[in-house]
Design brief:
The protein is built from seven helices and three strands. The mean pLDDT is 92. It starts with 5 loop residues before the first helix and ends with a helix. With 144 residues, it is mainly α. Helices cover 52% and strands 6% of the residues.
Length: 144
């Protein structure tokens, strides 16, 4: 299933392993960028967070000290690459904040034309369009 499904699932599982490993406790300023509007992680982050550290019992034996959801909101950014669905983008904005979403394409799997045409029409406010389309990347990468 490659780019249609497996890339997201495999990257999502790897993301959860990074969080559970305690990596972000050791390096709290580390920032990770996920493509495809979060590689499916944001759709299930509450459930994963809840079960990983359920009632303080840690049934999965994770090393992370905080709920997974906290790390996801503090240490991750999402790009729109290869997921040109406005509802999914708005969900990402609500889950981790519009300041952590970045416009991207996913070339060669998707075209620049398709990505930009979708983004230009996406039903979001002009302020969010400017942040996601340019300002968030400038801030994250410390560009002039």
């Amino acid at each position: 299933m490659g780019p249609a499904w497996a890339f997201s699932v495999e990257t999502g599982v790897h993301t959860l392993r990074l969080i559970g490993s305690g990596l972000f406790d050791a390096y709290p300023k580390l920032q990770v960028i996920l493509g495809h509007l979060g590689e499916l992680v944001q759709k299930n982050i509450w459930r994963t967070s809840h079960w990983a550290l359920a009632n303080g019992k840690n049934p999965m034996g994770v090393k992370a000290k905080q709920p997974f959801m906290d790390y996801f909101r503090q240490n991750f950014h999402m790009t729109t690459s290869g997921n040109f669905r406005t509802i999914a983008m708005r969900n990402a904005m609500e889950e981790i904040g519009g300041d952590r979403v970045l416009f991207s394409t996913d070339y060669p799997f998707e075209t620049m034309e398709e990505a930009s045409a979708w983004f230009d029409r996406a039903e979001i406010g002009d302020n969010d369009r400017q942040k996601i389309g340019r300002d968030n990347a400038k801030r994250l990468f410390r560009l002039p």
